[in-house]
Amino acid sequence: MAAREKPEQDARPRHDVRALEELLASQRRRIGRYTARADRRTSRTPRPHPNGGGSGPADVTAEVAAIGTRDLLDALPLAALLIRVVRDGGGRIADYHYVTENEAAVRYADAVIPREARPPSALRPVPLFDRFPSMADTPVPRMLRDAFDSGRPQGPEPVEWYLPLPDGQAVRIHNEVTVTRCGEHLLLSWERGHHTLLARAAQQLARVCWAEWNLGDDTAQGSEGLRHVLGLPADAPVPTLPQLAAMTTAGGPDALHRALYDVFLRRRRAACDLVLADDGRVLSCVAEPVWLPGGPVWSVRAVMMDVTGDRRARERAAAAELDAQAQRAQVHALADISGALRDAVLPHFEGELSPYGLEAAAVYRPDSGSGIGGDWFKVRVLPGDRVLIALGDARGHGLQAVTLMAKLRYALAGLSFTGRKVEQLTAWLNNVACDDGRESTATAVIGRYHPERCLLRWTCAGHPRPVLLRDGRARVLWEAPGAGGPPLGVVPDQEYRATETVLLKGDVVLLYSDGLVERRAHDPDADTARLVEEVARAGGHGVGAGPAALERFAQTVVQALTGPRQTDDATLLAFRHLHGEPDRPR
Fold first, then answer.
1. Conformation bin of residue 529: beta by default, left when phi > 0, alpha when psi is -120 to 50
2. Which pLDDT score is estimated for 553?
3. Positive or negative: CA dihedral 81, 87, 92, 97
4. Which residues have CB under 8 Å from 267's CB, separation 6+?
């Protein structure tokens, strides 16, 4: 069918949607095989009526007259079937017979079921599941039994079944079904399913529409806003999936194909972005599978949202930010680049730490294959005689990792002068990473040392916990319950919680990147245990006095854990506590 009459659309090449059409054809074949097997399984030979031809009136008119007038049944606003309960000699339910249907059911059949798929007219009651075989595998038998036994209405409950077509396809029926007892009869009524739920969701979200494509009979339906979102005339039919793909720019058919592959073959939700070729509007599409119990995916249900305004606003904001950054950085470009490379590759410390009771040393081992990675650290004295101690690992390698590494390192250096607690610094740094884009993620451990209390307050953002060497014994630092949080750049406005560690004289605390310990085919616990073992071995008989001895100790640990073919950059930051013990340790 023609979704819209535009020559440029009709002239689009067909090769870009061929893979999608083949995927849909393959799924239709699966549905055909399933329905063929199900027809053979549910087919039954006609059963004779009890008592030689029926225990009730001989025709439909008499049957209806036994419980009331036909006008009463037709007055029901919902589509309904009248079902007679057939009992055996012991009074137990033996079968259910279809008696008749009301005018609303006839109108429903005219709108949904092709004439060639409808069962023949019945002049007398017939077994319900002979007339509609696939309904036997739905909740309907249970609802009929429970409604008759308890006398209480059953439902509404979603019910899905099908009617086969002569050409091998099938009509999928999906409704909200209710069963009510009427004396010795049952009234099975229904209304179109899923529409109410989808319409409610669309009303709650701006610029949202829904559509559903049924592969059993090649039909499609959609919400009132679908045509507006797609830029189609109000009276245009809902486009098929290949027609929808043909309305998009290059890359759209492939994106839709990948999403539908997940829906059909992996039975999971999938999302994709589609850019309309006519006006460049961007649609965010989320699709989910619908299938019968035990059968293949029967149809695709999708919610689409016009996100053009949001995307363009973000693009304009990003372009403005980049332009402003370029203007500010132009004068200091050479100094910034050399400083970033120096800070990334050459470990050094700003200021003398011994007056604050600390000694520090750092060892950096680059990736043997990819060069500079995303490891970074920062140690600097802050106002109020506090000391910032931090180490992180930005995702990836090369220029992108160095850029993010420098951004986080400089941001932390500036934020730390606010005097706020480390948990707040971590939260701010997380928002900096989130604003940088989806790929800008990093882990970090951020701490502040308080000399007057011999106290280290620290928090982890998806990073390995520090290791403590005390009196020749090494262990991973204990972390307070609920402390830490996810990596930087994953969840905006994430809250973090700090852990407090009191340090004793001679304690050595080691912060490290995961490249120092991670090995293929090893679990994280085993890697950490190996690090603890090497720290204890290197410092078991003491580290030795002075910064030079501390650096030799760090070099020994790194050398034991890395090799000539290092697959990731590795950083170890070690600092030693020189002060005496606090008055009241906690």
1. alpha
2. 92
3. negative
4. 289, 291, 297
CA gap 347, 364 in Å, rounded: 7
Q: Where do the DSSP E strands lie in 151-296? A: 154-164, 170-182, 185-192, 208-214, 219-222, 270-275, 282-291
Farthest CA pair distance, the chain: 108
Q: Which residue type does 219 have?
A: T
Residue 248, phi then psi, degrees to nearest 5:
-100, 170
Total residue count of the chain as it appears in this document:
586
Give yes or no for a contact between 21 and 28, defined as CB atoms under 8 angstroms apart.
no
Q: Are 169 and 32 in contact (CB under 8 A)?
A: yes
pTM for this structure? 0.43
CA distance 18 to 457: 60
Contact 208, 202 (CB under 8 A): yes
Distance, CA of 21 to CA of 262 (rounded, Å): 15
Distance of CA 21 to the CA centre of its chain: 27
Residue among 463, 393, 461 at smallest CA distance from 429: 461
Q: How far apart are CA 484 and CA 461, in angstroms?
A: 6
How many whole angstroms separate alpha carbon 53 and alpha carbon 59? 11
Cβ pair 99, 185 in contact under 8 A: yes
CB-based burial label for 76 (10 Å; 0-12, 13-18, 19+): middle
End-to-end CA distance of the chain: 76
What's the CA angle centered on 91, arms 86 and 92, to 5 degrees?
Answer: 70
CB atoms within 10 A of CB 583: 7
What backbone torsions phi and psi does residue 83 show, to the nearest 5 degrees? -115, 130
Half-sphere exposure of 248 (CA within 13 A, CB side): 24
C-alpha dihedral, 112 to 118 to 119 to 121, nearest 10°: 90
In tens, the pLDDT along 428-439 reads 999 988 887 767
Task: Specify the residue for token string 């049957």.
Answer: 63
The partner residues of 299 in beta bridges, in order of sequence, read 214, 290
Beta strands in 32-109 (DSSP E): 79-87, 93-101
* SS3 of residue 347 by DSSP: coil
3-state SS track over 222-264 = ECCCHHHHHCCCCCCCCCCHHHHHHCECCCHHHHHHHHHHHHH
Picking from 142, 136, 150, 154, the residue whose alpha carbon sits closest to that of residue 39 is: 136
- Of 295, 273, 268, 275, the closest CA to residue 284 belongs to 273
pLDDT tens per residue, range 248-295 = 998 889 999 999 999 999 899 999 999 998 888 898 899 999 887 778
- Show the tokens assigned to 521: 């085919």
CA angle 441, 467, 538 (to 5 degrees): 125
- In this structure, what token pair is assigned to residue 517? 């310990």
- Cα distance between residue 573 and residue 555, in whole Å: 10
